[in-house]
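Aim 2 progress update. The chain analyzed this quarter is reproduced below.
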Amino acid sequence: MARGPLTARGPLTAPGPLTPVGGRRPRGPAVRALRSSCTLVAMDSSPATAVIFDLDGTLVDSEPHYYEAGRRVLAAHGVPEFSWAEHTRFIGIGTRETMETLRAEHGIAAPVEQLLAEKNRSYLELAGRSAQVFPAMRTLVEQLHAASYPLAVASGSSPEAVHAVLECAGLAELLPVRVSAEEVGRGKPEPDVFLEAARRLGVPPGGCAVVEDAPAGAEAARRAGMRCVAVPYVRGTETDPAFASAGLLFAGGQDEFDPRRAYDWITGGEG
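Predicted structure tokens:
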């Protein structure tokens, strides 16, 4: 495993059909054919009054960092093989819930708090120095900020990780309201993190639009009573039933994501 700086197309890219929908796929005729088959599903177009962004896999391409951090922790506790395919099961799930599940599955003796601290420390080391923002997502954030929309981040990452990544990515000033799943009772797919973000923004849940990349996040938005823009990170998940509730689905992920269309849909335009 490479130890150099990680980029959106860096050495931790996973091969095969479990690679992200956007940003890390082979080019050529097969990709052009996939893009041509992608469709947007537009539903409710009533305007939102606030927007809540997921962080990892939505705003920034940090999943390779989380994969590597988890791989290091598991290896240190006697689990030498941890594949990208295994990691994709936990995309959209909070770090605590992820480590609780992995600890039980692999019979790790160390307490969850220790594993969580080790993973967060490793993740901060990786992501704190090279957070790669999806350019089109940055555009959407900047457009909404310029239009004075209340904005928040609701993430399964630790508060420290959320802060460090946003600072490194240059998004901290645009997204001052942040909620970590570690600050609420339950992580995604439960709605707690989104409901807390709405509370901090001072906006009713029904007035919020969520931007998400994972089925668990889309389901959490549905349970919170919020509209959702879905930009699937992992190829193949665009058909997950959880995304059926998304008002706007960019089935081709970041490759297809159009900030102008998302902005128009969020603000009550045609989308």
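The CA atoms of residues 50 and 148 lie 9 Å apart. The first strand starts at residue 40 and ends at 42. These observations will guide the mutagenesis experiments scheduled for the next reporting period.
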